[in-house]
Amino acid sequence: MRELTYSDAIREAMMEEMRSNPNVFLMGEDVGVFNGVWGVSHDMLAEFGPERIRDTAISEMNIIGSGLGAALVGMRPIVEIMFGDFLMCAGDQIANQVAKARFMSGGKANVPLTIRITSGAPGSAAAQHSQSPESWFMNIPGLKIVTPASPADAKGLLKTALRGEDPVLFFEHKMLYAETGPVPEEADFSVPFGQAAVVREGKDVTLIGVGIMVKKSLLAAEMLAKQGIEAEVIDPRTLVPLDKDTLIKSVAKTGRVVISHEAHRRSGPGAEISAVLAEDAIEYLDGPIMRVGAKNVPLPYSPELENHVLPNENDVYEAALKLCGRS
Amino acid sequence: MRELTYSDAIREAMMEEMRSNPNVFLMGEDVGVFNGVWGVSHDMLAEFGPERIRDTAISEMNIIGSGLGAALVGMRPIVEIMFGDFLMCAGDQIANQVAKARFMSGGKANVPLTIRITSGAPGSAAAQHSQSPESWFMNIPGLKIVTPASPADAKGLLKTALRGEDPVLFFEHKMLYAETGPVPEEADFSVPFGQAAVVREGKDVTLIGVGIMVKKSLLAAEMLAKQGIEAEVIDPRTLVPLDKDTLIKSVAKTGRVVISHEAHRRSGPGAEISAVLAEDAIEYLDGPIMRVGAKNVPLPYSPELENHVLPNENDVYEAALKLCGRS
Amino acid sequence: MQTGPEVSKYKDLYARDLLAEMFRRMTLVREFELRAIEERRGGLIPGFIHSCVGQEATAVGASLALTDEDVITSTHRGHGHLIGKGGDPKYMMAELAARAPGYCNGRGGSLHIADFSLGILGANGIVGGGLPMATGAALGFKMRGEKRVALSFFGDGATNEGTFHEAANQAGVWKLPVIFFCENNLYGEGTHIQRCTPIDDLAIRAQSYGFPGVIVDGNDILAVYEATKTAVERAKAGEGPTFIEAKTYRHRGHYEGDPQLYRTQEEIQSWMKKDPIKRFSKALMESGLFDDGDLEELQGSVIMQLNEAVSFAEKAEKPAVEEALAGVYADTHNGLVF
Amino acid sequence: MQTGPEVSKYKDLYARDLLAEMFRRMTLVREFELRAIEERRGGLIPGFIHSCVGQEATAVGASLALTDEDVITSTHRGHGHLIGKGGDPKYMMAELAARAPGYCNGRGGSLHIADFSLGILGANGIVGGGLPMATGAALGFKMRGEKRVALSFFGDGATNEGTFHEAANQAGVWKLPVIFFCENNLYGEGTHIQRCTPIDDLAIRAQSYGFPGVIVDGNDILAVYEATKTAVERAKAGEGPTFIEAKTYRHRGHYEGDPQLYRTQEEIQSWMKKDPIKRFSKALMESGLFDDGDLEELQGSVIMQLNEAVSFAEKAEKPAVEEALAGVYADTHNGLVF
Ligand SMILES: Cc1ncc(C[n+]2csc(CCOP(=O)(O)OP(=O)(O)O)c2C)c(N)n1
Ligand SMILES: Cc1ncc(C[n+]2csc(CCOP(=O)(O)OP(=O)(O)O)c2C)c(N)n1
Ligand SMILES: [Mg+2]
Ligand SMILES: [Mg+2]
Which entry of A4, C281, D142, D172 is 20 to 30 Å from C210 by CA? Predict the structure, then answer.
């Protein structure tokens, strides 16, 4: 299969949908002339023109809110929030307008709005440009929350988002943009929401990773393998909807689980996943449900401090080792 | 001991601090002439005048952000967000400015800012006036999050907030305002952060309630008592900091736990509490960690639908009964 | 401040039907509010009511200048806008009564009524919340080359929200077919405009966004209608947004039950004298186009319509409890999102 | 557009020391930026740099019009503001190098430098994020009856954020001693002001908030200084805020590494000719108050200071890893908040 970067996989999904549906368009800060600050939408302006690749003012509330308005009259907007850290600049539009429009109207509002958001620490970008906001809106019913971890999933999940009728928060990890991987070429390729991927099979411990921590969980699994521990690595892919069954099935098999994400530990996505397992899978567990995440400290600028605060494969490895009674 | 309403207990804490410290002041939408939409600040304008009881424009970002600015130059502002639902109108100011000011400045910024927020469903107020946003900012390091459940705690915790040097999100449940209870009269009465209250002792099951669910957990405990089940009811009182020890100690004794809050179940405060217990107390557990919360649906207007979505004492009772193998 | 045409010009300028419809809708709004308040006291309606009594000319005048293809976003004080835009009092009353056939199946209530088939994108519980939505709808129309406009209603208080600023700016840049219609009723809840806004005329705010701001007498339905018509034409000609500030007043409290400590009886009384419906009926009669009997007949038809609306609401079924979970998503992925 | 006084008037209007300090600080800002960029390439500095090369006159001119008691809020492009307000390049460089003695102990970096002892409430990574903060500081001063002002720096792009609108409105209502200082450098990242703002002069936005808006040539340090002085006096006299729009330009990319696809070399070159430092030195020499040698000496002292700053940063210790957890709260309740 041909290989694409995560970034180009996202771009390809957008371009395909824009080619096939005139109502799809992209709007955000510097997505056009600047090619997007992360380069994801490079040269899309040349193909689609400024009507469909819209550079906006620096006005996050209006970006999100007018995405909603356009969706309500039949468009299918993709809007970009340059850094996930700025998501709360538009917090109310997301929580009170976008998420609730359908329900409040008695199910009549259609909200095919995809909000693309970068997340994660790109290195020494400090506290306001490094956050992983995946869980900030998980308490708000009405949104779907997607965290692709590979180029194929990035494309496939984005296709599902763009073809659906509900608002989606689509989190792209900055440090995954340059990762390459095979991406199916079929025009109808998509990845459904609510289906976790078992990215490595194992029987001794389940490593559930969110976003970039899938990659790090795989690294941890290799390290564990050297210790004779077979880790199963699972990527939920979508946090809402959450594929509980796949998670529970794995835990039922291994009896041990380490959940990891780059978001802060407290009330990160892992809190919900852990709570789901503690509710529905506790009988299978041979030990505590371990969470690995950034320490509960704003992201520091200093590389050393930042490294100390961010979670990595070692943290997953050690948590798993401990769970398996080996540390 | 004299009795006060929850509302008047909050008012008394504000008035005492304003009398003793000229830098304390109150600012928000309609807190003055209107007496506060919930009446909490009634007649405070008469005593303190419009300089210290400040009616603002309808501008939540500026309310929070200028609270921060005033705090940075030595004031001790109390700012009010009329409905917790509007919190995300100022989301970025809370998450990126208020919470991080101290850390980003190398620990130098002092942020004695108390943000008073109403929470909860007052009945048929629908999806944008009924939410319980306690967990929305739990993932953001730098904030303290307080959920008083009784008049005494409302006063005592607010005093701690107003005398501290850190930003506090202080959640007042609308349906508790009229509740009365004994409140100590001593001027120096306060309730420390990070100390859960065991509001009822029991040995069979632990009911952890947040905010108004403390009251409902107590009702559930009475119902359980009739079935011969002795429930211990615990109020964490502050979600950040969280008094893990008291929670774990109780669970170690009872082996069973039901966590409840009015916030939606998914990623509500209970997710974090459950995850903490699943990490640190799983060995004591004789069954799943149960969560009771609002269903994952925006709050409906219809009283019948709303009742169906909101959690109540029966939900707690039934979860506990099930845990105890009695249903 | 723009005012409407002289009475004597009515004949030449307007079709009699249009004038009748203006009167009928304003009366329908007024009577709807009064009836809803009554039914709330009687227990039929469980939630808050923010009535727009006194502001009928803005709601109806602006809405009647739109076509069915145009859309509006509304506010917490939205009943007038909805009726103005053609909303059916029957489904509105049923919604207020939290019944299944209500506009939102009882899920939304007064603050969230929407009817996409009529171009009503929704009332809103968030002050200033609907402004970006209107801008976005206008963007959609413009991109598809449709000759449609979006009109956003909001209050004086809402002009201090950041959403107003961001929406107006972007609309100005893209010359979107959107009308920012501000009902300046002097108060945001209990706060007089002079205590929260440092200028006398909100219309000057339009200068910041490169489009015209006009001031109209909001109790003069023809002035409102004319100003909105002009704005609609401008928008449809691709010339971009217009800000309309309509000066008006709400006769009743911010919500029912408001003790109104923040204003005097004199002030209220002085505005009661400028009642937009009384004023319009007087003018209609002076024009010779309508007599007492004509107006009474229209009024009577309104009352009948409301009687029917109330009895429809009373008889309507309550939503089934299992339905509470429906309608959050189009696609629940086999229930996994709950 | 306001410009500074004629060269011939320098003698009468300004103390020589002040003029020298203006030149020295502008040069310090310029050289700081160039040196930081070099040290970033060399690996000493790990994070982003948004340089303000070309905008020295706004940063220094505005800051020198303030006293030590006054405060500023700054932006992502903040080095000039910080140096203007008296920030020490040593601790700034150490912060950029992520070292323990840096202004924020290496926790904040370029985007978050603050020094409360100098009235620097902080750079900011959020566009428009510091505006409400400045309004709040000014509120504190006013409530305590202190004769101090808060000045908020922000860019043209930031004027489209809701925070700008909300802060300006409330400051106007309360007549707060705050100065809204907009550095209009024509671009917000890659977006030219004409593509995101539908007006030519941002200063007219002040009309929406009931206070004056003035336009100054932002490459003319005396014009900037004068306009700010006037605003400070107004503020301290209790007359409320002023909006100052200073028209200027950044010579380099939005951040280091920006390919600048959005503008032409011609445009850049035309602005290079208006370099605020060259312009000021020419004027200083023409005034007869300074000669080549004087300016070279000042320049030399700046280079020395920066050499020291860099070697200070190089030698400074890195923050201890355990410290990462410190400084989040004043009171950690025995570590329970972590
Ligand atoms: C974001 C937000 N802040 C505050 C409120 C509470 N609130 C509801 S209506 C209102 C006053 C609005 O004033 P205005 O915009 O003038 O409209 P009016 O009520 O006069 O029609 C306020 C403050 C809200 N609903 N949403
Ligand atoms: C809320 C927010 N949105 C977007 C950004 C990304 N961003 C950083 S600087 C910038 C441009 C700011 O333009 P302007 O205010 O004119 O300042 P300048 O860079 O020209 O000094 C943008 C969009 C941000 N940091 N914060
Ligand atoms: Mg009003
Ligand atoms: Mg700029």
Answer: D172
pLDDT in tens, C153-165: 999 999 999 999 9
B140: which chain A residues are within 8 Å (Cβ-Cβ)?
A: 264
pLDDT-flagged residues of chain A (< 50): none
Type of residue numbered A41:
S
Nearest to C337 among A62, A70, A240 (CB): A240
Domains present along chain C, CATH in parentheses: 7-316 (3.40.50.970)
Distance CA B168, CA D330 (A): 12
Length of chain D: 338
- The yes-or-no answer on residue C16 being catalytic is no
Closest CA to B79 of B95, B103, B104, B61: B61
Find the helix packing angle between D56-64 and D16-42, rounded to 10°. 130
**In the block, residue with structure tokens 């005492």:** B16
Partners of residue B91 in chain A, C-beta under 8 Å: 87-89, 91-92
Q: Which chains touch C (3 or more CB pairs under 8 A)?
A: A, B, D
What's the mean pLDDT when you consider all of chain C?
97
State mean pLDDT over B135-157: 98
Is B126 a domain residue? Answer: yes
Q: pLDDT tens across A16-73, in order?
A: 999 999 999 999 999 999 999 999 999 999 999 999 999 999 999 999 999 999 999 9
Q: Which residue of A has its CA nearest to C117?
A: A108
Domain holding A251: CATH number?
3.40.50.920
State the Cα–Cα distance between residues A100 and A97, nearest whole angstrom.
5
Q: Is A283 exposed, middle or buried (0-12, 13-18, 19+ CB in 10 A)?
A: exposed
Residues in chain B closer than 8 A to D179 (CB atoms): none
- Residue C122 and residue A75: Cβ atoms within 8 Å? no
Distance of CA D101 from the midpoint of ligand 3 (Å): 52
- Asked whether residue B19 falls in the same domain as residue B112, the answer is yes
C86-120 CB burial, b ≥16 within 10 A, e <16? bbbbbbbbbbbbbbbbbbbbbbbbbbbbbbbebbb
DSSP class per residue in B201-249: --SSEEEEE-THHHHHHHHHHHHHHHTT--EEEEE-SEEES--HHHHHH
Total number of domains constituting chain B:
2
ipTM confidence score: 0.98
Cis, peptide link before residue B241, omega less than 30° from 0: yes
Residues A278 and A157 in one domain: no
Q: A: neighbours with 3+ CB pairs under 8 Å?
A: B, C, D
Are A158 and A253 in contact by the 8 Å Cβ rule? The answer is no
Asked if B70's CB is within 8 angstroms of D140's CB, the reply is yes
- pTM equals 0.98
Residue of A nearest to D259 (CA): A34
Residue B269's identity, in one-letter code, is P
Share of residues in chain D with pLDDT > 70 (%): 100
- Give the position, in ligand 1's atom list, of the atom nearest the Cα of B89: 1
Domain boundary among B123, B155, B182: B182
pLDDT of amino acid A327: 75
Q: Do A135 and B267 touch (CB under 8 A)?
A: yes
What CA–CA distances, in Å, run from D165 to A19, B92, D159, D197, D329? 38, 15, 8, 14, 31
Question: Which of B182, B205, B237 represents a domain boundary (last residue)?
Answer: B182
Residues in chain B: 327
Give the distance from CA C79 to its chain's centroid.
6
The pLDDT tens digits of the residues spanning D148-185 come to 999 999 999 999 999 999 999 999 999 999 999 999 99
> pLDDT for D298-328, tens place per residue?
999 999 999 999 999 999 999 999 888 889 9
SS3 D181: strand
Which residue is it, tokens 């008394």? Answer: B12
Closest atom of ligand 2 relative to the D128 alpha carbon: 1
